[in-house]
Amino acid sequence: MPPVRHLLKNCAAVVSDDGSGPKVLRDVDILIEGPAITAIGQGLADGPLAEGVAVTNAEGWFVYPGLVNTHHHFFQCFVRNRAELDWTRLSVLEWLDRIYPVFSRLDEDCFYHSSVTAMAELIKHGCTTALDHQYCFPRHAGKRLIDRQFEAAELLGLRFHAGRGGNTLPKSEGSTIPDAMLETTDEFIGDCARLIDSYHEAGRFGMRRVVVAPCQPVNCYRETFVESVALARDRGVMMHTHVGEGESAVIQARHGMRTVDYCAELGFAGPDAFYAHCWELTHDELRTLARSGTGVAHCPEPVYLVGAEVTDIPAMAAFGVKLGLGCDGAASNDNSNLMHCLHSAYMLQCLVAAKRAHPVPPAADFLAYATAGGAQVLGRDDIGRLAPGMAADLFAIDTRRMDYVGTRHDPLSLIPRVGIGAPVDLTMINGRIVWRKGELVGLDEGKLFAQAEAALAASGAAPGKPL
Ligand SMILES: [Zn+2]
């Protein structure tokens, strides 16, 4: 069967990048064949290329590369908007004591339906690739939790990187994790290897990737990280963990060095590694990341709910740290909307600009962090930019609305500066339209909603049940 071909005709603006930096192309068509873009230019609809093509009228549309989410915890969608978990009234330890018993009651269905929930929200707001850091493995829930997440991604059509997380260090040795959610290093590494064998698609346009992602150095034995490095390097997959989110002093006391040096010493650093957060890193530590090519998944929105420090993005940009954006989980950010996070990322830097040693990067750079930057952080060169030969991962906004009057002269800065409240008008992933005209294509959203609510109600995490 010949590949499906699409033509987006008469796009008002396309944010394109052939590798030399983002450029806005006005009044052009985009031709898509199978999973990839084959041409961007004027008059494609009139030539022989357009024969047998499904044509979509894109008049008035701004078309962007799909957003790349580099850090999330989908399961936390089932514990959001709960007054009992109010960071402004709880210390971190009190909060952990309340939340972990809830996490430990989640079952396999919760992991599946919370993933469908988060993925649907991401897609509606222009996200086309997401990494989920799934570190919650309650013993009773079994080991098929990430398998169910791949199932959810397949259903929705999302390009999915599964960060296989886990914790090995007991509370009695200084971690914050209840015993019922611990694994041994062998269990953890064994399951990472099984998932890589079963799902990892290393080739171009791969829809499924596996990332070895022990949760945090502070909650794992040293050997867990050493074994993670050995497995990831042996199989050629990426590594991910949390760094610089308030634990550096604990790691210093335990290992005689802060987290960045500790990870580097264990080999958990380099172009095949990326860390979430990094808000407490010193400039020297940021330079270390830049030198080693280690990426950062910057999640701006925990600043609001948790009161985390605003990450020093100007310094990261000045030193050349590889940077992508993420939502983080609903325990610290109750939405799964990377479009919103992109706006926040820029606005928060403006808020504290006067306190910085380096200038805030231009608004357009924040769009690049959320797209090409995220792709680079995830170790991919086939997504994150719109150009012939790249994956057809994109979203479109019909700008012929009152919301956009006066903003249309600069598509590159529109999202960081103005923000986009409503869902986008179209999301395409790997050449397939997955969201159009307010519908998840081929799916019954009402049914998905009812199934997710039922799974939540049946679980030990249902709102109203004591924490
Ligand atoms: Zn996280």
Describe the fold and architecture.
Helices cover 34% and strands 20% of the residues. Strand 8, helix 4 and strand 9 form a beta-alpha-beta unit. It has 467 residues and is an alpha/beta fold. It contains 14 helices and 17 strands. The structure holds zinc ion (ZN). Zinc ion binds next to loops. InterPro entries: Amidohydro-rel, Metal-dep_hydrolase_composite, Metal_Hydrolase, MTA/SAH_deaminase. Keywords: Hydrolase. This is Hydroxydechloroatrazine ethylaminohydrolase. Pfam families: Amidohydro_1.
How are the elements arranged and paired?
Layout: E1 5-16, E2 23-33, E3 36-41, E4 54-57, E5 61-65, E6 67-69, H1 92-103, H2 108-124, E7 127-134, H3 145-156, E8 159-164, H4 185-199, E9 208-212, H5 222-235, E10 239-243, H6 248-255, H7 259-266, E11 273-277, H8 283-292, E12 295-298, H9 302-306, H10 313-319, E13 322-325, H11 338-351, H12 363-377, E14 394-398, H13 411-418, E15 426-429, E16 432-436, E17 439-440, H14 445-458
Parallel strand pairs: 1-4, 1-5, 6-7, 7-8, 8-9, 10-11, 11-12, 12-13
Antiparallel strand pairs: 1-2, 2-3, 5-14, 14-15, 15-16, 16-17
Helix pairs in contact: 2-3, 2-14, 4-5, 11-12, 11-13, 12-13
The structure holds zinc ion.
Protein name: Hydroxydechloroatrazine ethylaminohydrolase
Organism: Methylobacterium organophilum
InterPro entries: Amidohydro-rel, Metal-dep_hydrolase_composite, Metal_Hydrolase, MTA/SAH_deaminase
